[in-house]
Amino acid sequence: MEVGIDCEKDGSQSDVEKKKFFEIDDEVATDAKTGKVDSEAIIKEKPSYVFCASELIAKQVSEMPTLLKPFLPQVGIAVMAGSSDTGKSAWLRQLATAIVLNQAEFISFKLTATHHSAIYVSTEDDENSIAYLLKKQNGEQLTPEKFKGLRFIFETDNLLKRLNLELSRMPADIVIVDTLTDVFGSNDFNNALVVRSFLQQYQKLALKHQCLVVFNHHLAKAKEYSVPSKNAVLGSMAIESKARILLELRKDRFDNNLRHLIALKGNYLPAKDKQASTVLQFNEQMVFTNTGKTVVIEELAGSRNCNETGELKAKAAELKKKGESVRDIAKMLEKEFNVPVGKSTVGEWVKGVASEEPAKPGVD
Predict the structure, then answer these.
(1) Among 19, 180, 303, 318, which residue carries the largest CB count within 10 Å?
(2) Global confidence as pTM
(3) Dihedral sign computed on CA atoms, order 172, 174, 178, 181
(4) What are phi and psi of 93, to 5 degrees?
């Protein structure tokens, strides 16, 4: 008794020989004489676009392959969203640099690159601007030979064709498109069918070249003051539905030097990774570092409150007068007000404030 069918064949050779002659036209079996599809047509070999479950199980994939664990997959489409002036482009450039320099981690998360190569499409900054920004972000480690794997494209006409040719010439782990709205090429940004069709072309590009395509994008007006949500991105909902991962970079409500990295959507992310932000320090060199802190996303809602910030500054000054160190003041403010406050920000707040009591051991 037959209990299974060999996935590699749809029938035995004798069965095939008994059938009429068929041609395969556009991957559909058709009668050579009439041109009509015949449901009884049998293809000898399994087409390359068909995968058996047995083949997939044999791959022994125990966890989702990632470029940046747990956020960015190795292949597909991702979106980095946020309001203007949050540092999204700087974050993406730093990520590309980490990939090219073969770094094991980026902002304290595991980085797994294959080609150690990246392509950055810039629609807002020209060659001189990027040259300046690379120097600012990388400083002394910016030597030409180390950065050969980082390529920039400034001309976006026929972008898909350009990217396909460049990826064929030299593979890359990531393609960064900065920004999505500039390359969209249509005013119909709220039309789900149009947007989905546009993104599908980049999905095919990612699959063909086994890389990740990341779009830098914007939030809708005033959404940076709301509780983080995948519904807050500018344009059609097709953007969030097509992307495998949707991230948001948001300014802290109280500290200008802090940013919150939030996973708004992740097809393979556990729920806990989408319930809190990762708090990042953003310094004057436009470099991000992980503070090791997280904040529940519901606490990120609300505009910058001048009264609350004033309270923080007043409390910081009060603690400084008591001889507390800048580091300890930051910790005390975070505990009392339940908000992350950076040491550098506290230092700016208490600059010029003299201690009225003897300084405690270890005071900055």
Answers:
(1) 180
(2) 0.76
(3) positive
(4) -65, -40
β 174-178/118-122 pair status? parallel
Question: H or E segment at 122?
Answer: strand 118-122
User: In 170-235, which residue ranges form alpha helices assigned H by DSSP?
Assistant: 180-184, 192-209
Residue 192, token pair as written in the block = 């789900």
Residue 160: CB atoms within 10 A of its CB come to: 14
**In angstroms, rounded to a whole number, what is the distance separating the alpha carbons of residues 49 and 209?**
16
Distance CA 70, CA 273 (A): 8
Side-chain half-sphere CA neighbours of 83 within 13 A:
13
DSSP 3-state of 13: helix
What pLDDT, on the 0 to 100 scale, is given for residue 361?
54
Q: In the chain, what are the domain boundaries? A: 13-58, 66-300, 306-349
β partners of residue 66 = 73
Q: What is the mean pLDDT of residues 81-101?
A: 96
Q: Note the pLDDT tens digit of each residue in 17-48.
A: 434 333 444 445 555 566 665 555 555 678 88
71 within 8 A of 265, measured Cβ to Cβ: no
More confident residue, 354 or 249: 249
Write out the CATH class of domain 66-300: alpha beta
| 6-15, 134-143, 208-217: range with lowest mean pLDDT | 6-15
Per-residue pLDDT reduced to its tens digit, 247-287: 999 999 888 899 999 999 998 898 889 999 999 999 999 99
Neighbours of 141 (CB within 10 A): 10
- Pairing assessment for the beta strands 212-216 and 76-81 based on DSSP bridges: parallel
- Give CA–CA dist 175/256, Å, rounded: 29
